[in-house]
Amino acid sequence: MILLVAFIAKQLPSCIHSVFVEKYITYYKQRLMRGDSIIMDVDSTYTLSNGVKIPCIGFGTWQIASGQATVDAVKEALRAGYRHIDTASIYGNEESVGRAIRQSCINPQEIFVTTKLWNSDHGYEETLKAFELSRRKLGLDIIDLYLIHWPNPKALRPDYAKHNAQSWRAMEELYESGQVRAIGVSNFLSHHLDALCKTARIEPMVNQIPIHPGCAQETLVTHCQKRDILAEAYSPLGTGKLITNNKIQAIAQKYHKGSAQICLRWSLQMGFLPLPKSITPKYIQENVNIFDFELDTDDIDALSALKEDVPAVMDPDRVPF
Ligand SMILES: NC(=O)c1ccc[n+]([C@@H]2O[C@H](COP(=O)([O-])OP(=O)(O)OC[C@H]3O[C@@H](n4cnc5c(N)ncnc54)[C@H](OP(=O)(O)O)[C@@H]3O)[C@@H](O)[C@H]2O)c1
Predict the structure, then answer these.
(1) CA of 238 to the centre of ligand 1 (A)
(2) Nearest-CA residue for atom 4 of ligand 1
C-alpha cells in the first residue's frame, strides 16, 4: 500500500498532486516514522515518545456511575477486545474499573490504564498523594498513563504555570521510579504546553483533548506533533451529539456503517487515538468494529471540515471549575 501510494504520487504532476495522495502519504509516513505498525485491529498500537506502546483505541468511562454500571461496561469492553481503559479520579469510578479488570481474569499487565490528576490535587506533595490514592483504588501496582486533567483550574488562576510545574515535577518522579509508564496532560493548549516545557525535564507523551469530526484541532495537533506528543481524541462522538448528524449519517450509509463507526474511523485515519464511551453492549461492540473499512480522502476532508451541528468545546482558560 505504502509503495503503491508513493508510486502514484511520483507519477502525478505537482499541480494535480491530489489531497488524497498528500493525506495518505502523510498518514503512512507518520506511522512509519513512529515505528508503528499500520492500524489493523483493536490490538494495534501507537508508540509514545518514550517507546511505550499504547492500544490505538481506548474505552472512555466519564459519566459511568461507579459500582455495577462501571463494572459491567468495562467488562463488556474487555470482552469486546478493548485493552485500554480511560478513567480519572474525578469520574469517581476508579475502584469499579479496578474491580472489572480483576473480574475479567485478563492479566492486568495486558490492559493499558490511564487515570488523571484532578484540579484540587495540584502541587508536588498533593500530586504524589493523589496518585497513590488512584493507584490503590484501581488496585494496580503500576499505572500506564497519568495525566494532568486540566491546565488552568479556576482556583489556580493566574498562577497556573507554577502549579503545573510543581505537579509535573511529582509526575516526573513517579515516572522515573517506574510507578507510571508514561506521563502526559489533558486539555492543554499550545501556550500551556510551552509553559510546562520551560521547566519540564521530561516532556509530556500525550495530550488528551476534544477531537471529533468538525473539530480536528489542526493547530494544536500540529504543535503536539512537533513535540512528539500523541493526541488522544476525547469525546470522539461529540458526547453522542454527532450520532444524528445528517452529513455523518449520509457518509455512514455509503460505507454500510453506523455514525459512531464513521467518527472513530476518521479519528484513526487522522492519526488520533479515540476514546469512545458507552454503557450499551451493542454500541461497545460496534465501536471496535471499525477495522474492516477505510474512508476515502474526500470523506475524511468532509468530516474534518464539518460545520453543521458540531458541539462546541470548552475553553480551558475559562472553565468554571
Ligand atoms: N480529559 C477530559 O477532560 C475528558 C473530557 C471528556 C471526555 N473524556 C474521555 O473521553 C471519553 C469519551 O467522551 P464522552 O464521554 O464525552 O463521549 P463520546 O464517546 O463522544 O460519546 C458517548 C455517547 O455516545 C453514545 N454512543 C456511544 N457509542 C454509540 C454508538 N455506537 N451508537 C450510538 N450512540 C453511541 C453513548 O451512549 P450510551 O453510553 O448510552 O451507550 C454516549 O451517550 C470519556 O468517557 C472520557 O474517558 C475526557
Answers:
(1) 7
(2) 234
What ligand 1 atom has the least distance to the C-alpha of 61? 45
- In DSSP terms, which residues pair with 210 in a beta bridge? 234
What the block records as the C-alpha cell of 177 is: 521510579
With contact defined as beta carbons under 8 Å apart, do 124 and 166 qualify? yes
For the CA atoms of 63, 65, 66, 69, what is the dihedral angle to 10 degrees? -120
Q: Which domains does the chain have, with CATH numbers?
A: 1-35 (no CATH), 41-304 (3.20.20.100)
Percent with pLDDT over 70 in the chain: 88
Q: Are 275 and 234 in contact (CB under 8 A)?
A: yes
* Residue 48, pLDDT above cutoff 60: yes
Q: Let me know: does 75 contact 97? Beta carbons within 8 Å.
A: no
pTM: 0.92
Computed on alpha carbons and rounded to an integer, the radius of gyration of the chain in Å comes to 19
